[in-house]
Design brief:
This protein is 78% helix and 0% strand. By secondary structure, the protein is mainly α. It has a domain of 34 residues.
Length: 183
């Protein structure tokens, strides 16, 4: 994640988003340009791993008992801690409302089975794609058809289009297959 700037899962997307908010651009030059940040991250991982080992040794029985907590008690407690925590940061009710609104949006996304990771990937990789697309257009004197001049670019474009239309193609195939099976 740090060396290439490519997130592998949802957690690394959030980490890259946090770095970008603070003006740090993960990528090949990140370690060279920000050795203090990279060193801090590595030492934090090391210290956290050692502390976690000793905490787990000491608190394992308590953690096992926490598994049996009812959801009807757990979820209101989590929501209350989130509300109090977000208010405690700047003592502004606006931030609490932002959290509530985005919580409702998250619930709607979950109900509609919209993948939030794809949105976060778009947020993280969008600026990079825009910069490199602009560079490509400048190099091609503004011709969009220049993408089709290179065979590797055409292959990647075809693969991207297949990934884009794969769910619809699969659904259409299954629909046709079910119609022929009934006949």
């Amino acid at each position: 994640m740090i060396t290439l700037g490519i997130p592998g899962d949802g957690v690394t997307v959030v980490l890259i988003g946090g770095l970008m908010i603070h003006g740090l651009e993960p990528g090949p030059l990140f370690i060279k340009q920000n050795p203090d940040v990279v060193g801090t991250i590595m030492w934090s991982y090391l210290i956290a791993s050692v502390m976690l080992y000793f905490m787990l040794l000491a608190l394992l029985r308590i953690f096992i008992k926490m598994i049996n907590v009812k959801y009807s008690l757990l979820f209101p407690a989590i929501i209350a801690f989130c509300l109090f925590g977000i208010f405690a940061v700047n003592n502004r009710i606006f931030e609490v409302w932002v959290m509530i609104i985005f919580g409702v949006v998250g619930i709607i996304f979950f109900a509609l089975k919209i993948d939030v990771i794809a949105l976060l990937l778009g947020y993280v990789l969008g600026p990079l794609i825009e910069v490199f697309f602009r560079r490509g257009l400048i190099a091609a004197n503004g011709r969009l058809s220049a993408i089709l001049d290179r065979p590797v670019a055409v292959i990647f474009l075809v693969i991207a289009l297949l990934f884009l239309f794969w769910p619809a193609l699969k659904q259409g195939y299954l629909f046709i297959r079910s119609k022929t099976a009934k006949a």
